Amino acid sequence: MQWDDVRIVLALLRAPKLADAAAGLALDASTLSRRLAKLEEEMGTRLFTRTRDGLQPTVVAERMRARAEAMEADAAALVHAMRSDEPVTGTVRLATTESFARLLVMNGLLDLRASHPDLVIEILGENRPVDLTRGEADLAIRLSVLRQPSLRARCVGKTGVGLFAAQSYLRSRSAIRGASSLRGHDFLMPGGELARLPEAKWLAPRGGRVVFKSSSMPALIAAAVAGHGIVPLPLGWGDMEPDLVRVMPLDAIPERKIWLVTHDAAATRPAVAAVSKHLVEILGRMFASAATSQART
Q1: Considering all CA atoms of the chain, what is the largest pairwise distance in Å, rounded to the nearest integer?
Q2: pTM (predicted TM-score)
Q3: Domain formed by 161-249, architecture
Q4: pLDDT in tens, the chain (297 residues)
C-alpha cells in the first residue's frame, strides 16, 4: 500500500464521518469516497461499512490501525530528520486558557529561549477553543481529546479537582471536614461557559452562599486569595497557589486528562517540536506534583 492510501484509512478510523475525514485530508467528500472505493477494490476486501451514523470499520480496517499508526510515526520521524539541522526560530503560537498560560510562564515556559534566543512564544490565552486545522495556533493545551484526523493529541498529565481557600477565610469560619460541613460557607463559583464544569455542578447544591461568579479563573483565584470564599480548582492549579490551601479533594469528580494537541503540518517545524518537548517536560512536573500531593491527602 502507498502512504497516501494508509492516510485515508487512518483518517476514516479516527473520524468516521466522511466529511470530517475529508476535511482533515484537504479533500472533498466525493473524492475521498471514490478513493476509498478504489482502495477496497484493489485490496479485494471491504474496509468500512456504510451506516447512517457514518463509516464503521471492519475487522480488516481495525487490524490495520496499529501498523498504519506506526507508518504515520515513521513518516513524521523522516520529516523531522530531514529538518533536524534547521534552526529553532520564528513564532510558535500556543492556545490555552488564561489561567493555564500564567502557570506555564511561572513554571519555566520562557526558559526555552536560553537555548533558542531567536524563538518567540505567543500565548493565546482564552477559554474559547481555537481551530488548529485552520492555522489559528500551532499548539493547544486542552482538557478534551480531539478526533480530527489531521490533529495529533498526546495525554501529558492528569489532575483531580479540589476546593481551596485562603487561611484568612478558614480561620474566620467553621471547620470543613467533608461535603456535609460546606453548608453556610461562601462559594466562589465558575460562571459563563465554565458553569458547565463538573465541580461547579457538584458545589451548587451543597448549601453554601454564592458570593461571586466569573468565567475568569484568575479572577476566581484572586477572590479566594483575598479571603472571600472557597473556590473549586484543578489540583495542579490550586496546589501551586502560595496563598491558598487545599480544603478537600473532590474524589467524586473523575480525574481530568490534559492533552497537548498540534496539527500535522505544524508538528514538523523545528520550533514547534522544541516547544512541544518543553511543554511535555513542564506539564509532567506540574501534574506529577499534583498527583503526589493528592496521594498524601
Answers
A1: 75
A2: 0.64
A3: 3-Layer(aba) Sandwich (3.40)
A4: 788 888 888 888 887 788 888 877 778 888 989 999 999 999 999 999 988 878 889 999 999 888 887 887 777 667 666 655 677 889 999 999 887 888 899 889 999 999 899 999 999 987 667 777 777 889 999 877 666 666 778 888 888 899 999 999 999 998 898 898 999 999 999 998 888 889 999 998 999 999 999 988 889 999 999 999 999 998 877 888 889 999 999 999 988 888 898 887 777 788 998 999 899 988 888 776 544 444 444
User: Are 261 and 131 a contacting pair, CB within 8 Å?
Assistant: no
C-alpha dist (Å) from residue 255 to 162, 235, 284:
11, 10, 15
> How far is the C-alpha of 16 from the C-alpha of 47, rounded, in Å?
12
- Quote the CATH superfamily of domain 90-155+257-296: Periplasmic binding protein-like II (3.40.190.10)
Task: Report the candidate in 174, 183, 173 with the shortest Cα–Cα distance to residue 204.
Answer: 183
- Report the SS3 class of residue 147: coil
- C-alpha closest to that of 26 among 38, 5, 39, 11: 11
3-82 adopts what CATH topology? Arc Repressor Mutant, subunit A (1.10.10)
Residues of the chain with CATH 3.40.190.10: 90-155+257-296, 161-249
> How far are the Cα atoms of 20, 26, 46, 189 from residue 199, in angstroms, in the given order?
32, 39, 45, 9
Tell me which residue of 162, 169, 185 sits closest to 226, measured CA to CA.
169
